[in-house]
């Protein structure tokens, strides 16, 4: 078995507590689209209702799902315009209120100090948003240029659960799947990493207590090899993978 030398980290609600802020920001935009396209919603979307349905997907992925569900069309130019607007709205919210996930900064500092691991961010979100997030909370120094976005970095934009962004990141880093461990908090992210052949540590820390049991099951079913509730458990989870126990 190859030695683990690379940690690939999702961004939203894995490194930073951004999902709630981001979905709050894009709910207004999606409701505006619904009005423009004459989509009959039972009730307007809220940040909370979007999280339940679309956690782990980027805005482009959400739009594709909604177009299928409500049977409406959007030109590429329209979609690109809305993607840009959503980025602006969300980044403004993140720069105002964003904080790190509890305990992650200590873990990143220890991993970096050990010199044993390459650290990279692998996200569905737009690169501009991911960079703004990790810069706002002081994490950018751990990753350098190794920040990859399914929405921005790929020749053809996509979203997790497509494994394309993990495959791309590994290619750019010159790593094989068995040298990597990924950390993900969503079903789509876990599926993306798993489909790329990477062992995924599932993280349920940011979920409300009532949701945690359900999410543990969801992440395990999506392929997570072990679940952590808090970043203080990361070292133990990583050691299990490194020893080949999971």
TrEMBL record:
* Gene3D superfamilies in UniProt: HAD superfamily/HAD-like (3.40.50.1000), Putative phosphatase, domain 2 (1.10.150.240)
Protein name in the entry: HAD-like protein
MF (Gene Ontology): phosphatase activity
Q: Which residues form a coiled coil?
A: none
List, alphabetically, the PANTHER family matched. Answer: CBBY-LIKE PROTEIN (PTHR42896:SF2), XYLULOSE-1,5-BISPHOSPHATE (XUBP) PHOSPHATASE (PTHR42896)
Q: Which Pfam families match?
A: Hydrolase
């Amino acid at each position: 078995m190859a030695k683990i030398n690379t940690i690939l980290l999702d961004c939203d609600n894995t490194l930073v507590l951004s999902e709630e802020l981001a979905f709050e920001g894009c709910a207004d935009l999606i409701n505006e689209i619904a009005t423009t396209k004459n989509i009959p919603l039972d009730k307007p979307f809220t940040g909370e209702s979007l999280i339940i349905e679309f956690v782990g997907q980027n805005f482009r992925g959400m739009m594709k799902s909604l177009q299928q569900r409500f049977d409406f069309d959007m030109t590429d130019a329209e979609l690109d315009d809305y993607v840009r607007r959503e980025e602006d709205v969300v980044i403004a919210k993140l720069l105002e209120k964003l904080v790190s996930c509890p305990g992650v900064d200590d873990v990143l500092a220890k991993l970096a100090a050990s010199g044993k691991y390459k650290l990279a961010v692998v996200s569905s979100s737009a690169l501009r948003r991911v960079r703004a997030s990790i810069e706002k909370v002081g994490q950018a120094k751990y990753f350098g240029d190794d920040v990859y976005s399914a929405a921005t970095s790929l020749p053809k934009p996509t979203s997790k659960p497509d494994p394309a962004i993990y495959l791309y990141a590994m290619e750019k880093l010159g790593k094989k799947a068995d040298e990597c461990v990924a950390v993900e908090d969503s079903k789509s992210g876990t599926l993306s990493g798993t489909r790329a052949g990477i062992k995924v540590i599932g993280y349920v820390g940011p979920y409300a207590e009532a949701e945690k049991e359900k999410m543990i099951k969801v992440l395990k079913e999506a392929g997570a090899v072990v679940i952590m509730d808090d970043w203080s458990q990361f070292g133990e989870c990583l050691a299990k993978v490194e020893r080949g126990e999971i």
